[in-house]
Amino acid sequence: MALIVQKYGGSSVSDAESIKRVAKRVAEAKKAGNDVVVVVSAMGDSTDELIDLARQVTPMPPQREMDILLTAGERISMSLLAMAINNLGVKAKSFTGQQAGVITDAVYGKAHIVDVVPVRIRETIKSGTVAIVAGFQGVNRTSNDVTTLGRGGSDTTAVALAAGLSADVCEIYTDVDGVFTADPRIVPSAQKVDRITYEEMLEMAACGAKVLMLRCVEFGRRYSVPIHVRSSYSARTGTLVTNEPAPSSSESEDQAVEDPIITGVAHDRSEAKITIVGVPDVPGTAARIFEVVATSGANIDMIVQNVSAASTGLTDISFTLPEADGPQALAALRAVQGEIKFDSLQFDDQVGKLSLIGAGMKSSPGVSARLFGALRDAGINIEMISTSEIRISVVTREDSLNDAVRAVHSAFGLDGESEAVVYAGTGR
C-alpha cells in the first residue's frame, strides 16, 4: 500500500463531467489499495472570474478580502469532487487549506508555506477515507487570517502535503502527458521527457515552463519528494522529477557518449527590460541601483552593463524583471535619479526569453556555438545573454520568440516523429 498525493489543476476539474472523470481516477487509486490525498485547484477560469468581479466592485480591493474571496474557488471544486467520489462508493471528505494544517506567513496574495501540520488529514487517511484538500490557500498562525499562495499555489500545496505526510509520490495531473522538451503548443514535435532531475526542472520552471511551478519543485528537492507529472486525460506514464538523472540508454550507436545532454528549451513572455541610460561609472553606483530595485520588491533576472565611454565616464545598465514588477521598479529608480545622476530610463515590454537547459552541457563544449548558430540562421537577434552550469538564456524580441524556440529545438535534435497532445489547450 502506498500513500499518494494527487493534484488536479483547473482544466482537469473545469466542469461536472471533468470532475466525474477525476473522481473515477481517484476512486480507482483508492480501490487499488492506496491511501490517497487529493489537492484541487479552482474550476477552469473561476479564479480569474472572481478577480474580475472584485475589480467591478472596486478598483483597489483590500488584499485581505481578495484572499478570502479567491479561496472560494478551490472550496467549490473540493466539495464537488468529494461528492463525486462518495457517489462512486468511496468515502471522501473535503478540507480547506486551514483545516488541512497548511500554515503560511502573513503576506496576502503570495504567502509562503512555513509549516504543514496535517493532523486531520492523517486521521482521515487512517479511517480509510480519501482526503480532498483545497489548494492555493493556507492560514497565518498569528492572525488566523486566510492567505493565498500566488501562482502555482496548488502545486506547492500538494508537494508540501506530500512532504508533511511522508508520501511515496506526489502526482501532479495536468492536461499534457508530462514535461516536454518544449511547449507542445509552439513545437508540436516536442518529446516527452521520461525523467528529469530537480535541478533541471528548477531551471525549466524558472525559465518559463508552466507545467510545474518553481516553488513546488523547490519543495520537492528540499524534502526529496518524487514528483510525477501526468495527464488527467490519459493513463500514460508521465515524467518523474527526482534526484536521479535520466538513464543514458537512449543514446544511439552513432552518438558519442560525451555529446551534450539537453533536456529542453523553455521560453518566457512575462519579462520586461529596463535600461538605465548614462550611469556614472564609479564604484558603488551599481550597488545603489540594485538596492533601490530590491527595495521596490522587484525580482531581477538578467543584468548587462556596457563598457563605459572613455570620453564621458558613463555607462548603460540593462536588466530584466517580471513585467508586473516594472512600474514599481521604475518609480523607485525615478525617485533616486537626482542622487545617482543617471540620464534617463527606458522600459521595454516587448522582449522574450529563451533558455536551453541540460545537465550535460556543463561538460560539453560547443553548446553555445550551436545555440547561437541556430538563432543566427533563423535571423533572430540576441539582446542579452545569461548562463549557469546547466542553462544558457538569451533575450530577444517577443515577436521572434516562437521562431527562436523552434529553431533551437531542431538544432539540438529534440524533434520527435509524432505530435505531442495538449488535451485541454492550456498546457496546465
Strand order of the largest sheet: 3-6-2-1-9-11-12-10
CATH superfamily of the domain at 3-174: Acetylglutamate kinase-like
Mean pLDDT: 91
- Uncertain residue segments: 249-260
Largest sheet: 8 strands, mixed
In short:
The chain has helices at 16-31, 46-57, 63-87, 97-100, 119-126, 153-165, 198-206, 214-223, 285-295, 326-335, 337-340, 367-377, 401-411; strands spanning 3-8, 35-40, 92-95, 102-104, 113-116, 130-134, 137-140, 146-148, 169-174, 195-197, 227-231, 239-242, 264-268, 271-280, 303-305, 314-322, 344-348, 351-357, 384-388, 391-397. The chain is α/β, with parallel strands linked by helices and 428 residues long. It has a domain at 3-174: Acetylglutamate kinase-like (Carbamate kinase).
Key attributes of the depicted protein:
20 strands, alpha/beta, Carbamate kinase, globular, 428 residues, four-stranded mixed beta sheet, eight-stranded mixed beta sheet
Can you describe this structure?
With 428 residues, this protein is of the alpha/beta class. The chain has a domain at 3-174: Acetylglutamate kinase-like (Carbamate kinase, 3-Layer(aba) Sandwich), CATH 3.40.1160.10. Helix content is 34%, strand content 24%. It contains 13 helices and 20 strands. The protein has helices at 16-31, 46-57, 63-87, 97-100, 119-126, 153-165, 198-206, 214-223, 285-295, 326-335, 337-340, 367-377, 401-411, and strands at 3-8, 35-40, 92-95, 102-104, 113-116, 130-134, 137-140, 146-148, 169-174, 195-197, 227-231, 239-242, 264-268, 271-280, 303-305, 314-322, 344-348, 351-357, 384-388, 391-397. The strands form 4 sheets. An 8-stranded mixed β-sheet has the order 3-6-2-1-9-11-12-10, with helices on both faces. Helix 2 runs antiparallel to helix 3, helix 7 runs antiparallel to helix 8 (214-223) and helix 9 (285-295) crosses helix 10. It is globular, with a radius of gyration of 23 Å. 44% of the residues are buried. Residues 249-260 have low confidence and may be disordered.
